[in-house]
Amino acid sequence: MEKTKQLIQRCIHGDRNSQRNLYEAYHVKMFGICLRYAKNREEAEDILQEGFVQVFKSLHQFKYNGSFEGWVRKIMVNCSIQHYRSKIRMYPVVDQEEIAAEPFVNEQVTAKIQKKEILNLVQNLPPAYRMVFNLYVFEGLKHREIAELLGVSEGTSKSNLFDAKLLLQKAVTNSLKIASNY
Amino acid sequence: MDEDLQNIEDLFRASLLDHVETPSKTVWESVEKRLDDASFVQLQNKYKRLRIISALLLLLLVISIYEIRNNERGKKGSGNFSELPATTKMSAKILENLPSSMRGDSLRGFDSGRMQPNDQIMTPAAQSLPGDARMGQVYAAGNFQDRSPQQKAARIHVHAGEDVFSHQPTHYASNGFKSAASASMHSYIEAADARKNDGNARYKPIERGDDNISYVEKIDFARQDVLPAGYGTLFNVIPIARPVLHLQPSKTAIPGNNLDVLYKNRRGGGLLITVFFSPDFAWYRLQDDEVGSQPDNANRLEKEEKHQFSATYGVLLDKSLSGHWSIQSGVTVANTNITLEPKIIYAQPDNAGNVKYRVNTSSGYGYILPTFSPNPVSGDSLYMYSSVHSLQYIGIPVVISYGILNSRLSISLRQGISVNFLTKAALDVNVENSTDRATETVNNLHGIREIYFSGMTGMNLAYPITKKIAATLTPVFRYALNSIDRNATVKSYPMTFGAVAGLRLRL
Predict the structure, then answer these.
(1) What are residue B15's DSSP bridge partners?
(2) For residue A144, what are the domain limits?
(3) Which of B8, B293, B344 sits opposite A74 (nearest CB)?
(4) Does B378 touch chain A (CB under 8 A)?
(5) Phi, psi of B166 (to 5 degrees)
(6) What is the DSSP secondary structure assignment for residue B139, as one 8-state letter?
């Protein structure tokens, strides 16, 4: 923590090498987060870039009483939400593809489908669903918190989560079928 | 089905929670470029602030120097001579060195170059003249209340000896004293021609009887070598102390009954006290500050908050610096009340780690713990159906004033800064859940600065009610120079427009 503190202090003073080091230390993890919230890699890079700019601008506000990584992560999530809000012309869902969702075992899925493909499934969700799914599943927020953050009702948040999970289940089933055919 | 959906959650969480991937190198390049831009803007802002502060300091410095010089001049030129200029001291020594026959009795009180009111100076060539025309006299300001406006202006009189060029009896007098002088004397008055404002004193003779001359602004004494009349070449040239009056030119003559006040002010001796009250129209500029998961931001708070009655009151002292300039300072008390629209508030850990309900405002944030919900967990919510936060600041302003109209109604432009000390930052909140209601008070909002600086611009109108009391009205715009918050949800820059009404008393 002491090293991180020194690094942060140097970054606050505008030391470009330290800023680069801090970026190097966290960019891979943070990009993983951004990818989940984005539609594709380019969008994720935009969010990552905005997130790190915010991190450097706000470093003086970090109070050292919690995890620095958690703080950076929070900024990335906020930037993702901002990005979502800026493009809020929501595409009314719904994928009407008639594929029956079938039960499956998680180990079976992870054995047959690559992580990247699983990530693609999330990225292919409609934005509103993707946001709710990420905030609920990965950030552990409650529906009323999600509703506040996204400016929707609690009911909408619940409904979006349900639909998102249903879509993902169908997509996973579909992916498993394709994988089995090979 | 529900089980399967839970399964989906677990599947994705397990697969993607720790997913890492390397972005392209262009991301860092873009971040670096934006950081460069940001530091340039920051630097610009920093220097902008520095420039403003430097300009203000420079202005204060110039005013201070002017004030000091003006005070010295006021002491020397107003009849209250504590110390005379070097030329005068030199003249005094010259006079002392004259033969006693040339000095007469008029050097009494003239001690080592120091002159007091009513001290007399003799110009040697005048000793043969009768009466008070022999002597150069410096009179202290007297009471001229019962005289005409022109005479009122005649607060200082110097009349002396003989005109050194024409060898005619001469008196140097301000306007009001002429009537007391001998009509048989050839007179002239030298006045500074202030209209030629090029820094070089130029003098022009003004004929006796010119009633436009208002008052003596300053008196200098200069050495002049003369040949005494009637002595031919038997004696050497005699040095004399020649008084030179600098009079306020007719263009800016003091009109009417305000002569006393204005005269006093122009000498730098005037001190005014103003008691005022100002109902204020208040608003603010908000900027997002804290990066975090607060549901509130600048846009939202701006929509939810409404300013209620705000007011400023206090006492100010005016010190006149010169004919147009004055400086003002004192103590002000500013009160602002802001209400919040009903909304849902959430519980979250406070700065000490205890979970409480947080209320965000434009002036900072506070935590409440209603009795009906003493142990909330993070994310619990309450309905806040009304809230008001009140701020009180004690300010110490420094204001520079420039008079643009000096008639019965005087008008001046004002510009200043104020240091504002927070004395109260309270929050009253009414909350409820499905069964209970409670009123909670937070006496210390978090995230608010103890001190902030503000600027002010205004125009002062003053109209005399009596000789000593004037009514004043000052429309004034006040604006924060830095935000009143630090590490709060937003940065708030309060602004007010007030109609400052007051009574000004001349001390």
Answers:
(1) none
(2) 106-181
(3) B293
(4) no
(5) -95, -10
(6) P
* A138: CATH: 1.10.10.10
- d(C-alpha B471, C-alpha B461), whole Å: 8
| Alpha-carbon gap: A75 to the closest alpha carbon of chain B (Å) | 7
For strands B410-432 and B120-122, give the pairing: unpaired
**Closest residue on chain A to B27 (Cα):** A49
The interface predicted TM-score (ipTM) is 0.86
Same domain as A10, residue A78: yes
Chain A residues whose beta carbon lies within 8 Å of the beta carbon of residue B39: 14
Amino acid symbol at A52: F
CA–CA separation, B111 vs B130, rounded Å? 25
- Quote the CA–CA distance of B336 and B359 in Å, as a whole number: 18
Same domain, A153 and A114: yes
Asked whether the beta carbons of residue B18 and residue A104 sit closer than 8 angstroms, the reply is no
- Which one of A52, A85, A135 makes the best mutation probe of the B interface by having the most chain B beta carbons within 10 Å? A52
- Phi then psi for A139, rounded to 5 degrees? -95, -15
Q: Which residue has the tokens 């050839």?
A: B186
pLDDT of amino acid B41: 61
Contacts of A81 in chain B (CB under 8 A): none
Amino acid identity of B373?
A: S
Structural domains of chain B, with CATH? 77-253 (no CATH), 259-343+391-428+448-506 (2.40.160.20)
Strands B325-340 vs B238-247: parallel, antiparallel or unpaired: unpaired
Of residues B282 and B120, the one with the higher pLDDT is B282
Q: Hey, which bits of B252-324 come out as E strands?
A: 271-288, 305-307, 310-320
Tell whether A26 is covered by a domain: yes
Take residue B217 and report the two structure tokens written for it: 């602004």
Closest chain B residue to the Cα of A22, Cα to Cα: B28
Report the gap between the CA of B484 and the closest CA in chain A (Å). Answer: 16
A97 domain residue, yes or no: no
Average pLDDT over residues B218-224: 48
When pLDDT is cut at 50, 70 and 90, the band that residue B403 belongs to is: confident
